[in-house]
Design goal:
Blueprint lengths: L12 E4 L4 H15 L3 E4 L31 H13 L3 E6 L12 E2 L5 E2 L28 H6 L13 H16 L4 E4 L7 H9 L17 E4 L19 E3 L1 H14 L20 E3 L19 H13 L4 E6 L40 H12 L5 E6 L4 E6 L3 E6 L5 E6 L5 E4 L6 E2 L2 E2 L3 E4 L4 E6 L7 E5 L5
Parallel strand pairs: 1-2, 1-10, 2-3, 3-6, 6-7, 7-8, 8-9, 9-10
Antiparallel strand pairs: 4-5, 11-12, 12-13, 13-20, 14-19, 15-18, 16-17
The structure holds acarbose derived hexasaccharide (AAO).
Length: 474
């Protein structure tokens, strides 16, 4: 279940974190399909507990499998999946198989009106009762397998996936989503479940729905959230045979490099050479919804120049199943998504340049980022060649004779003739502008008959990256 079931030559997944279903449906039609995105990871779809202030993380506390959340109801979800599939955009759902909600004083009422008593492990909406959960205990030692897999992650009631009944409920929930046309799942907190139990569950799922354009016998794409920096007992190797795994080492190292803590010349051996999982097993990202909130090496939208350079490298280098983050603005860990006085999530509004206003960041609508999604499609199936570096943090490389990328992360200019490997002609730099009506709105590069072009990236330029490809030839 490693095949993302992409359509055509498309390559990149975007996480539309906390977006509403109706807005995603429109985004598929108006923006994602025309720009060549391959799929969307959506926030959890099943009913969750309501927390004071409505932090984003309340959605990681399920109380039933009814498909009603602040993103919309089942009808809206089904409509979104249908409309996105119709334009070749796949939907992947963030699913919570590990747990239900944490403690709540008395009776909780969920986003779909279902009642539960989490402190008694009573979730009549499913129904689950105490016998369906592991006995309560706290994770204090992350190197103790029993604690990691059978105690409660941050106090969330821990389901026993070894039980036939719990398995049947989880399979029923996932099959319902498959029936509605989804292409796969992000499995939250996979490390906290025994891989044998997950294997049973994944293996029992229905094939993808052919009425939504999937081939016969197609299996759901599975990518599992396993945070493995290489020093814990439960490792990514227990899961990568079952499906893809989120490669957190990628996120950490790319952040390190583009923050200037590591010379970019070392990126020549990026990928398995750095101890990452094999390319077809690694779900790769610069940041995700959790680690963008942490202090540390990981880059996020708040360091835009470095973030765009890292993203360009991510999408240009032939490694991994790539996912782009699309955030809302936050000050701290608990900042809720943009919402109105009644606590309804508000829809993104777009400015003249297509960027988002009103609290949504929409990295995926930044030209420098969606242009690289197009780059990745244009160079699909080519190899990396002609790696060049200045011995420090100026680098360039070709993708076959279809694309060329250069980056300057030094504090001095990059100015020189470089081999772009492209057929002779004039190409738009898709970072500084686009090809519109046969002309470049930004910079361009003339490539001579030997494939060489004059490349300039000033140390103080707005963007530290330049990208050329055959679909943006004048
Ligand atoms: C909320 C409140 C809690 C409250 C709870 C229950 O914040 O105070 O107790 O409700 O009422 C999200 C939020 C939580 C929220 C939860 C439920 O992040 O704040 O709790 O919803 O509403 C571990 C798991 C990993 C998990 C991560 C957060 O392994 O699966 O913790 N991520 C997923 C989701 C996440 C969600 C949940 C799971 C729960 O993506 O959004 O939580 O559904 C080490 C371990 C990791 C561990 C981290 C963090 O990693 O290896 O396994 O992740 O620590 O504890 C360096 C180290 C590396 C370390 C890493 C941390 O790189 O080398 O070892 O830093 O970033």
């Amino acid at each position: 279940q490693h095949n993302p079931q992409w359509w055509g030559n498309r390559n990149t997944i975007v996480h539309l974190f906390e977006w509403k279903w109706a807005d995603i449906a429109e985004e598929c039609e108006e923006f994602l399909a025309p720009r060549g995105f391959a799929g969307v990871q959506v926030s959890p779809v099943n009913e969750n507990i309501i927390s004071a202030g409505r932090p984003w993380w309340e959605r990681y506390q399920p109380i039933s499998y009814k498909l009603t959340t602040r993103s919309g109801n089942e009808e809206e979800f089904a409509d979104m999946v249908r409309r996105c599939n119709d334009v070749g955009i796949r939907i992947y759902v963030d699913v919570l198989l590990n747990h239900m909600s944490g403690d709540f004083d008395g009776v909780a009422v969920g986003t779909g009106g279902t009642e539960a008593e989490p402190s008694k492990k009573s979730f009549p909406g499913v129904p689950y009762s105490a016998q369906d959960f592991h006995p309560s205990c706290e994770i204090t030692d992350w190197n103790d397998r029993f604690q990691v897999q059978e105690c409660e992650l941050v106090g969330l009631k821990d389901l026993n996936q070894h039980s036939d009944y719990v398995r049947s409920k989880l399979i029923e929930f996932l099959d319902h989503l498959i029936e509605l046309g989804v292409a796969g799942f992000r499995v939250d907190a996979a490390k906290h479940m025994a891989s044998e139990d997950l294997e049973y569950i994944y293996g029992s799922l229905s094939n993808l729905n052919i009425e939504h354009g999937f081939p016969h016998n197609a299996r759901a794409f599975i990518f599992q959230e396993v945070i493995d920096h290489g020093h814990e007992t439960v490792s990514r190797e227990e899961y990568n045979g079952l499906g893809a795994v989120t490669e957190f080492r990628f996120s950490e190292e790319i952040g390190n490099a583009f923050r200037g803590n590591n010379a970019l010349k070392w990126l020549q051996s990026w990928g398995t050479g750095w101890g990452f999982l094999s390319s077809d097993q690694a779900l790769t990202f610069v940041d995700n919804h959790d680690n963008q909130r942490d202090q540390g090496a990981v880059l996020n939208y708040k360091s835009p120049k470095q973030y765009k350079m890292a993203t360009a490298f991510h999408l240009a280098y032939p490694y991994g199943i790539s996912r782009v983050m699309s955030s809302f603005a936050f000050d701290d860990h608990d900042t809720p998504p943009p919402q109105d006085a009644q606590e309804n999530i508000i829809s993104p509004e777009f400015g003249e340049d297509g960027g988002c206003l009103n609290g949504w960041i929409c990295e995926h609508r930044w030209r420098q980022i969606y242009a690289m999604v197009g780059f990745k499609n244009a160079v699909r199936d080519t190899e990396l060649s002609e790696w060049w570096d200045n011995g420090d943090s100026q680098i360039s490389f070709c993708r076959g004779n279809k694309g060329f990328l250069a980056i300057n992360n030094n504090r001095y200019d990059l100015s020189q003739e470089l081999n772009t490997c492209l057929p002779a002609g004039e190409y738009c730099d898709v970072i500084s502008g686009s090809l519109v009506d046969g002309a470049c709105t930004g910079n361009s590069v003339k490539v001579n008959q030997w494939g060489y072009g004059y490349i300039h990236i000033g140390a103080d330029d707005f963007d530290g990256v330049l990208a050329l490809h055959v679909d943006a030839k004048v």
